[in-house]
Amino acid sequence: MNNRDSSSRWTRHLKRLVPALEWLPSYTREQLTGDLIAGIIVAVMLVPQGMAYAMLAGLPPQAGLYASIVPLVIYGLMGTSRPLSVAPVAIISLMTATTIAPLAEEGSADYLTLALTLALLSGLIQVGMGFMRAGILVAFLSHPVLSGFINAAALVIMASQARHFLGVDIPGDTFVEQAWSLVQNIADLHVPTVLLGLISLMILLYFKSYATPHLTAAGISRGIAGHIARAGTLFTVAGATLAVWIFGLDRNASIAITGEIPSGLPGLTMPDLGPDVLLQLLPSAFVISLVGFMESVSVAKTLASRKREKIEPDQELVALGAANLGAAFSGGFPVTGGLSRSVVNDSAGARSGMASIFTGAIVLLTVLVLTPLFTYLPRATLAAVVLVAVLGLLETRTLRRALAYNRPDVVALLVTFITVLVMGIEIGIAAGVVTSIVFFLWHTSQPHTAELGRIPGTGIFRNVRRHSTDVDPAILIIRVDENLYFANANRLEQTILDAVAQRDELSNLVLVGSAINSIDTSALETLEELAIRLQLAGVHTHLAAFKGPILDRLQHTHLMQLIGSHRIHLTTADAVNAIQQARSSSDE
Q: What pTM was estimated for this model as a whole?
């Protein structure tokens, strides 16, 4: 290979790794305008959200701002989704808190270091999965399991914010423990904090649900009204901060505030690379990696489908992993793509990853210049920001659909939901995954089979229990509607032997394999034993409608020697016709 070919190959690899190298050379002024507007609007949302999610993670508010700079820039350069906004989100922030809280005191230097380490591990896992093209692993998180987890996590998040929203200490590691603590301490509610929290909550809900139609009715264009509504979080935070400062509510009413937020960047931060710490955090980091990618890629695919754009899941893993690595070394904590910000980014006109880069730049400006303005920001208002954000996570649609369509999915959803509330996030997700796998094994271990008969006057064969068919008493036609493996092969064998025992005139079995995509070694041995037993009983075994790749693998097995190539048929009709012709020839 010459130098030019080698250089071209590395250029292609580099562009695949950093998609921005593909679109930046052709970047236009029109794209710049859309990206800049979108970047500003998302930054207005992200600044208060970032601080609120940092508090949810048990970290100081500035950590949420730090996690909203470098990760956004990295994803903007490496991601394949144009509007996806990668920064702190509620669920990942909660998982960060539940992972670190048992290991270090909240607010301590060790706590922050563990958050950095968790981001590092999550990033390494995601990058590794991306390079290994292992995005398929998220398939183990079925939608019902994910729905049960998200709904339970929303309740856990609400419970975790109750202490800031109500001004009362609510100890406990799980939702059940915190709920019971709240009941016991309900008399200790701090009334000024509750009032400020409720006012903030109502204003946030107004901006979320009613501001746009009211402003539109007042004659403001829908586009401008939408932008004002999206800035509602910032308006609420600014108003609450101003009220605390003007009326001295932190002194006169003991309202808890964030306090002084340091200006400037934290510099290069270092995670803890000690083997004991890494082993402690690794299981949670793996779950955070999967859940974060699942949430992110779901949002990215949904938004891409609207514009008929393409998402590369494995590259998304690499980009998300790189963003988390960026967070680990810039004072942040684990991040992923968020739904609400990404939708706003898309609707505000984001045309490329530059929108995320502009958002990160504006957050950087905030950290450098504007953090003194947040000194009197009440924690109750930040808790209200989190509560409004997670209200959108609660949904019953998946449960209702599962109830109407597939009851085992209902069980998996409820097991996940209840276990997360009672025992915690990681155990809850594991319980849901295990439940789904158990139901899958149970279902596939009982393969559906159907006896087929010919529909009169045609060459079509269908289930004798569903259609009026002609059945030749000397031919038993069994269609297998499942892949064959160690867990279901014996069940199939017994089904066939029971059917054969009931047919005295039977001389031929036709096994229809149109729905079989794989046969493992255990199932192959069972089929060989079945063919021998039927042969001893005077019954010939035929294979019909098996797929080419299956027949290729069976070609040199003992099963093919037992059956013989003349009993391998392209279709069910071919098998029946061949049997009947052979019988007619022998009668003559």
A: 0.79
